[in-house]
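Researcher: Go.
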Amino acid sequence: MKQLCYRLAVAVFFALAFHSTSNAQAIPNGGFETWAGADPAGWSTTNDDPLFVNVTKSTDAHSGSAAVRGEVKSIGSGFSFPPGLLTEPAFALNSRPAAIQGWYKTSLLGGDVVYIVVAITKADTAIGGTGITINTSSSVYQQFSSNIVVLSEETPDSAVISVQISGSAGLPNVGSYFILDDLAWGAATAVGSSDNTLPDRFALEQNYPNPFNPTTTIKYQLPAQGGVDGNAANNVRLVVYDMLGREVAVLVDAKQGPGNYEAKWNASGAASGVYLYRLNVYSGGSQAPSFVQSKLMTLVR
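Model: Structure:
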């Protein structure tokens, strides 16, 4: 029987030590056209057939005849089990990919989020990657593209990709799902800067770099208008948690006005693994946050 907890994306980075002997540059079975039983070929999943299956083949494809669908399933007693995908073993590279791109449909309930994480490695050491966060539902295919950051002049020799659904504050909601298709390396896209303008919405960005060792930067935005309390300052907390929900570090705990902000985390004393960081904004002295957003990041030593 498959080890369920191993199939969670939390464990993805422990698989970095296993390498394929293939020289293929393409993401293996990125179009999810080929299946080996209940799983897409080249990918490990959270399926534990016949106990339950939460990753399935879908005919609702962006191109070709198949895509992959992951849905949060109930495992009884009020608990849900999120779907997860992992390229296993790590697949070979002999060049530096500029970006990853793909197409998705989603139905996300109660603030659930889809995380796609790419780790680029050299000799079993993470030297770069990227993370994609999908937090809105779409009944039609949408494209994503995210630049790969490589923190070394070396040529990577392997990569790992993981996909999972996570709850905004705990277990995800039964029924949330994603359909994913046509994963491929692509060209880098230009990244603009808005540091000199005041934002018009709340936003928590993906940390950079990700994966990281041992320091990473987290940027976030507080709106000038149309947000909580307009231009007034709000109480802001940016906190890092481990995957058991324990508080690891408080990066920001202050009153802040509208603007673009960034915080750095030096994780030199933390263990390798996946961490969650959460931005809470409180307005008007309220004890309940007016805005909450969470993302995942990965420390790899």
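Model: The two ends are 30 Å apart (CA to CA).
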